[in-house]
Specification:
Layout: E1 3-8, H1 13-24, E2 31-37, E3 41-47, H2 50-56, E4 66-72, E5 87-88, E6 94-102, H3 105-114, H4 124-139, H5 143-151, E7 156-164, E8 171-176, E9 181-184, E10 189-192, E11 204-207, E12 212-216, E13 221-225, E14 230-231, E15 236-237, H6 253-259, H7 261-269, H8 289-294, E16 297-302, H9 304-321, E17 325-329, H10 330-333, E18 344-350, H11 356-367, E19 371-376, H12 382-386, E20 389-392, H13 405-425, H14 430-451, H15 454-464, E21 469-474, H16 478-493, E22 496-501, E23 518-522, H17 529-541, E24 545-551, H18 556-560, E25 563-567, H19 575-593
Parallel strand pairs: 16-17, 16-18, 18-19, 19-20, 21-22, 21-23, 23-24, 24-25
Antiparallel strand pairs: 1-4, 1-10, 2-3, 2-4, 5-6, 6-7, 7-8, 8-12, 9-10, 9-11, 11-15, 12-13, 13-14
Bound molecules: 6-O-phosphono-alpha-D-glucopyranose.
């Protein structure tokens, strides 16, 4: 979490940095701050959003062509003005912005206090900039050497940028465990947590690797390791387009992203289905196909929505490829001494590609010899770099903090993967393979039809916006969708919601049901349809209110449910891709009607780079 952005060039830094911060606000919005060099090193910072910082700096002198900014998701120290970044060093000659955690900050801080340092915040970050200054003074070294030596002493994760009043045309950036992208323009450089603040100005970027630092000066920049080895930077061209980062007429990014799904699902398939041979070509699987085919077991790790996609992946892979699959919360997996060996394949799912727990789970599985396959959305992020192979989801930038199009893209890629392994293993007939492939190709159009229910869903939302609790039920492929529907609602509307396997309801949640409890049921036509109908009856018998997601033309559920939302019929295995759409819209409209900040829900961040 936390977003960092910096600029060194010939233009005014302030508008570039502020706009960059707005683009990075999905990473945290507890406070924001900016540092500028202009006859001195000036820091302005404020608790709250980037808009609060803009208001605060309205009458300040914000001139200067070197600057950096930070938007914070608080870890150490509450979200107030004092703890906002940038942080000054003791003399105020240096300033730092930081994304990550310095784990051994307390011991370094104690040592520095003994040496006469004074701290004005509760953050781990401030300790690092004091340490850098201490080293610079004591060893009489320049900024880059002081930063390098200091980083040798800290334990933890960081993406940092440092500026100095004494070397005013210089930025030092470094990364370990948190991302940094450097944009190279005409006589100008950009540094950011991801490419979104950069794409407007240049498409040429360098992703720093872990343990590397960049020294950016006038007209050039060098990259070296913290061990002092010079590296040749690899300049890549960004595929991102600026319009992907804008709301494009929608009121919120989340709504835009929900509506983008017909396209983003298609983009996840694009180039992967050979039109002539009707075979699949997931490039990343290539050399590792045999690993999948021979795997005794597949373990899927992820967090949040990505974990829900993983659950769909489990059902798909077991159904189609007949390989046992376990789905684990990355945060549990990494600490519970799991049994992993060389014959295991681990699939790590992550929209951002930066989630700290998922990264740690990957490192653990790697150290035990497993093959790691990534399913990520953000190109060039940390997880795809840490895996042996993978497939990007190609959903395009997802900015709304609550994940929508990334989920359907993940499920699409997992479907392709399951089909490819099944085909290779011979656990699927050609006709079933072809049927599923054609059905998958029809999903974008079916999602478009599901989106047509938007007005109806808005009216439904008006009826339930004041509910205090919601229950979501599903069976089989409907169960992960129930979990995802509940997560969407609680994330953005702050209504308590639980997702449950429909039949498990009678082992607890049924006690909650009364005439005030809305129960959303995935009741589409599939192998457990009749059983779900019985579960609906059980809810109705206790006066619960049923909102059922049904297949177009369904009559049976319509008779007993209080409200029905129809979705087009599809193969049972692909139901999650369509049935999740009305649940996304329902959460969205309820949240809007409750006056919640849909794109930036309280306490959450999109990229969770702390454990
Ligand atoms: C955060 C986000 C969720 C996301 C989860 C995992 O909690 O708010 O939307 O599902 O992290 O993130 P990842 O980037 O690994 O998919």
């Amino acid at each position: 979490m936390c977003g960092i952005v910096a600029y060194l060039g010939t233009k005014e830094a302030y508008p570039i940095v502020m706009k960059g911060l707005q683009r990075l606000e999905y990473r945290g919005y507890d406070s924001a701050g900016i540092a500028l060099i202009n006859n001195g090193l000036h820091v302005y910072k404020k608790a709250g959003k980037v808009s609060d910082l803009a208001e605060f700096t309205k009458d300040k002198d914000v001139a200067g062509s070197v600057g950096m900014g930070h938007t914070r998701w608080a870890t150490h120290g509450e979200p107030n003005d004092r703890n906002a970044h940038p942080h000054y060093s003791e003399s105020k000659n240096f300033a730092i912005i930081h994304n990550g955690i310095i784990e051994n900050y307390a011991s370094i801080k104690a040592e520095l206090i003994n040496r006469g340092h004074h701290f004005s915040s509760d953050t781990d970050t401030e300790v690092l900039i004091h340490l850098i200054e201490d080293i610079s003074n004591n060893l009489n070294v320049d900024l880059q050497e002081a930063v390098r030596l200091a980083l040798g002493e800290v334990v933890g994760a960081y993406a940092i940028v440092i500026m100095s009043r004494l070397e005013p045309r210089k930025l030092i950036a470094a990364r370990k465990g948190s991302p940094i992208v450097i944009g190279i323009g005409q006589d100008e450089y950009f540094v950011a947590s991801d490419a979104t603040p950069i794409v407007e100005y240049t498409k040429n970027v360098v992703y720093l690797n872990d343990g590397e630092m960049a020294i950016i000066g006038n007209g050039d920049f060098t990259v070296k390791t913290i061990d002092n080895q010079i590296k040749v930077p690899y300049v890549q061209e960004l595929e991102m387009q600026l319009e992907m980062l804008e709301k494009g007429g929608y009121e919120h990014f989340m709504l835009k992203e929900i509506y983008e799904q017909p396209r983003s699902i298609w983009d996840s398939m694009r180039g992967r289905i050979d039109a002539r041979s009707r075979r699949l070509r997931l490039g990343g699987v290539g050399d590792f196909e045999n690993k999948f085919v021979n795997a005794k077991r597949i373990i899927i790790v992820g967090c949040g929505t990505s974990w829900h996609a993983g659950l769909v992946g489990e059902y798909l892979i077991e159904d189609l490829a007949r390989i046992p699959v376990e789905v684990e919360y990355a945060s549990e997996f990494r600490y519970r001494n799991p049994i992993i060996n060389e014959e295991d394949v681990v699939i790590a799912i992550s929209q951002s590609g930066e989630t700290a727990d998922t990264l740690a789970a990957i490192e653990l599985a790697k150290s035990k010899g497993a093959t790691i396959f990534g399913v990520c959305n953000v190109v060039g992020s940390s997880i795809p770099r840490a895996t042996h192979a993978g497939a990007y989801t190609h959903a395009g930038p997802e900015i709304g903090v609550a994940s929508t199009k990334a989920f359907t893209a993940q499920v699409t890629v997992l479907t392709l993967l399951a089909l490819q392994i099944a085909w290779k293993k011979g656990t699927i007939t050609d006709s079933r393979f072809q049927t599923l492939l054609s059905e998958l190709e029809s999903i974008p159009e079916k999602v478009t039809r599901a989106l047509d229910a938007n007005d109806e869903i808005r009216q439904l939302a008006a009826k339930f916006k004041d509910a205090r609790n919601f229950l979501y039920l599903g069976r089989g492929y409907g169960f992960p969708v129930a979990l995802e529907g509940a997560l969407k609602l609680k994330e953005i509307s702050y209504i308590h919601a639980e997702g449950y396997p429909a039949a498990e309801m009678k082992h607890g949640p049924i006690a909650l049901i009364d005439e005030e409890m809305p129960v959303v049921v995935i009741a589409t036509k599939n192998s457990s349809y009749e059983k779900v109908v019985s579960n609906i009856q059980e809810v109705k018998a206790r006066k619960g209110i049923i909102i059922a997601i049904v297949t177009e033309g369904d009559e049976e559920v319509r008779k007993i449910a209080d409200h029905v939302l129809e979705i087009p019929e599809t193969d049972e295995l692909l139901i999650p891709l369509v049935s999740v759409v009305p649940l996304q819209l329902l959460s969205y409209h309820i949240a809007v009607m409750r006056g919640c900040n849909v794109d930036q829900p309280r306490n959450l961040a999109k990229s969770v780079t702390v454990e």
